[in-house]
Structures are given as structure tokens and as C-alpha cells.
Amino acid sequence: MAREDIRSPSDLLVEDKISTEQKVREAESRAAAVYDFDTMLLARVEKRVGQSFAMMRRAAEEYMRSHPVADRALLMRLYESKRADFEKKLGIRLSDSAFRALIRRDFEGEIENYLFSLVAPSLVRGVATHDDIVRMSNSSYVVIKDLKGESEYALGDVSAVESVEFAKQNVEARGLETLINLDRDLKWAIIEIAKKMLEPNIRLNRAETERRRKEAIKEVKPVFYVVKKGEIILREGERVQPEHLAKLAAIRKKGEIKNTWHASLGLFSMILIVLSVLC
Fold it and tell me: Going by DSSP bridges, is the β-strand pair 6-7/232-234 parallel, antiparallel, or unpaired?
């Protein structure tokens, strides 16, 4: 509680900490989250499919060259012996029914085209985890950064980005619509493989997001207001409130540099006492 009126001994520039903190929060919220878009995932999927199917066809061709009279049962056993290598190159495990469907068609190249046609639309639009989809939807916009070319763009409408679950549903729907001329076993084998090949290619880059938010905060300039010389800062008998502290601190700061503003040291001493008790 002040024992007498405390007036500003000179014009003071006082930081408005509440306004400054508000600007910091606004700057932080405007710094959009950064998501890495792995646009090369589709090419890698295509490569894995191509290499795995080609490996099986080469094995069959070598068998046929060494066995003029082909034994289908032996060929099927050969395929089975190569299954682990096939799945390793493909990057997924297959059900027995799906693998048998591929064997019956001798891993023909047309199956690769079917797979690509089912997977490509989703990976081109972008696939993300459910949690990332929720985070993106709760933002006014996000920054999408292409990992290949290092280019980036702001994305406001994230509805085109598919969750993994939704992308798999779309793959199945495309398969049922476009593979109508294939036998049932092969159709479902292709759909199974396509769904298992899907994975997120849009992911939150936490480190880059945090770096940009810190940079945005650094750019915030403090908000100041002017207290005129002679303006009453604290009236006699008034209790010190948070809004008084910044003004009293500004006086103390100047007083530490030059306290000859006052005819006496009484006012300056009072300010020091008030601040030492409350700060």
C-alpha cells in the first residue's frame, strides 16, 4: 500500500507485457505446422512391385528353359520356394489365397498395372495417419513440403488428403469397380496387395514446425505505452496491482541509472521498498 502518491518523474516507455504476450501467442498460432510430403513413395511402390514380380517371372523362365516338358506341379513348388523372397522384395506379407491367385496367373505383368492403378490416386493426393488428419483439420492451413524438390505450399482445404483407413476403403472401391473382368480370387488378391502397399506419405515434421514457431516468436516486437511526466502511477493508500508493477519497475530502472530527478530520495526509496516486497 502506498504511503503517498507516486508520480512518474519523467516520460517513461513501459512495456505492456499482456499485449506483448498476446502478440506472441498470435504469432505462434499463425506459424503453420509443416508436413513433409513424400511424393516419391509411389515410385518406390512401383519399383518394389516391378522387381518382385519380375523375379518370379525370371525364375519361371529359367525353369522352362531347363525343362522342355513343363511340369505345372513342379513350377508351382518353385513359386512356393520363392515366396519369402517375393514378399521381402514386395515389402508385405500375403495371405495364402492371394499368393495362390498370383501363381495361377504366373505373376503376369498386367497385374502390376492393376496394382498401380489402385494405389496411385491415393498416394498422389496424399495419405496421412488419422492423428495427422485431425491436426490438419483443426488448423486454418498447413504447409506442405515436398521432400523431393524442397518446394512447399500452403494448404487450406485438407479434405483431399486421405487417412490410411479411408485410402484403403477407396482402393477397395476402385478395385471392385475396375477389376470386374477378373476372376474373383485374382481381383481380391490385387485389392489385398494394393491395400497393404498403402502407407502415409504425408507426415508432421515436428522439428521444422517448432523451428518456424520459434522464428515467428522472435519476430514479435514488444508493445510499449508512454507514461507522461507527473502522471500518477499509484495513489496514496492504493494497493499495488499488477498493472502498477511495470510502471514502478520502469522508474526503478531509470533511477538506477540516474536518480537525481528527485528533490529527495524518499520517493525513490519508496518505490524500491514496494518493488522489493512485491516482485
Answer: antiparallel
Mean pLDDT of 235-240: 73
Quickly count: other Cβ atoms within 10 Å of residue 99's Cβ: 19
- Residue 27: what pLDDT? 76
pLDDT at 253 over 80: no
| d(C-alpha 49, C-alpha 202), whole Å | 21
Mean pLDDT along residues 67-87: 91
How large is the C-alpha radius of gyration of the chain?
Answer: 35
DSSP string, 210-268: HHHHHHHHHTPPPPEEEE-TT-EEE-TTPPP-HHHHHHHHHHHHHHHH--TTSSSSHHH
* pLDDT higher than 70, residue 265: no
95 vs 189: CA distance, rounded Å: 8
- Cα 252–Cα 254–Cα 256 angle in degrees, nearest 5: 70
